[in-house]
Specification:
The protein is mostly helical. The protein folds into two domains: 2-252, no CATH class; 264-388, Alpha Horseshoe (Serine Threonine Protein Phosphatase 5, Tetratricopeptide repeat). 64% of the residues lie in helices and 3% in strands. It contains 20 helices and three strands. It has helices at 2-16, 39-57, 65-76, 81-86, 113-116, 122-137, 140-146, 151-161, 165-168, 177-185, 189-205, 215-226, 238-252, 264-285, 288-301, 306-319, 324-338, 343-355, 359-372, 379-388; strands spanning 90-94, 101-103, 108-112. Strands 1-3-2 form a three-stranded mixed β-sheet. Helix 12 runs antiparallel to helix 13 and helix 15 runs antiparallel to helix 16.
Length: 390
Amino acid sequence: MKKALYLFILIALSLLAGCETTSVLPIRGGSSSSFQMESDERRLWNRSEEEEKKLERSDLLCRDEELVSYVNEVAKKLYPAEVHQQVSFRIAIIKNPLLNAFAYPNGTIYVHSGMITRMENEAELATLLAHEMTHVTHRHALQQMRDLKNKAAFMATFNVLTLPAGVWGSIASLLGQVGTLAAVQGYSRELETEADTEGFGLVVAAQYDPAETGKLFLRLKEDVEEQKIEEPFFFGSHPRLQERIENYEKLQTLHPGKGGMKKEEVFSQKICALFLIDADQNISAGNYKIAQREVERFLSQKPDDAHAHFLLGEVYRQRNEQGDQDRAMASYQESIGKNPSYANSYKALGLLHLKKGEKPQAKEHLQRYLILSPQAQDRAYILEYLKQCE
């Protein structure tokens, strides 16, 4: 880890060396010659591409082609074709429940599943994408790297990089230095405000409802406060979220009562699969309220899904508040009712019955589990539990 930090210092200093100004022109479209990449910017892009390769090889990326295509189609609505010809925007989804989204300077944007599942409609998704895309078109990463005043920002990033992997989750070892700076530190208040302002204009121009632009950040702020969430990422920071909320409230006064697209139904349908992916990870992290909300949103669209009912049972069982064990058993029974071959619900029911001292019921369900999953990795443990049922 220290070796990586020292490497980043050298890269950062090499990028900063010899730079007389942080001012650069945004990528606006027009002729192909209008965007001339500078030498230090080329090094930054090359570094970004190296980091992306590591992420792309991991199993953290969502491979649902329909979902990934959908978020990229939303992004295409936000900028004219001329800009897309100069910057190859690409949106990817990381299967991680932490509140995060970040852009590499070459146009690749990563959004965590935890951000998307907090959204209510496509207008909110467009708001987030427009914000991140503005970081790219306005070359904020280059400006940030050139600004000698931001040495403190680099050091803050180093401090986060030394945190235990558990704080970051499974993405910790994959996010490189350029991605870390964008994901953790973000940019200066001035540049973030520019991303809000320019992004807001893109959302309005694409005919989305401007009244929806600040709602995601308000919801994230409420989650951070209510759940007492402590995250290293930019969008998990209470002060940074408050800045976004205040900026969008001011921007909305420019278009009072304008209205526009929200696209709630299509959004919910397209991202439905993410709810269970994210809920599973939130259960493991002990974020039971968020996990319950995600499972229930999934079930509102697919009420007959056995796995979803099982996960709801897991929320109750692991939360273990008053009445939760009974709720868990009911959810497992519902899961079996939807799919009598869903093995995990039999195991869960068997273990709960055993815990309550109801050995005949425990034996019945655990035996059924082994019949349905004869090659189960925990077979030896289940056989030991069955001995306790005698």
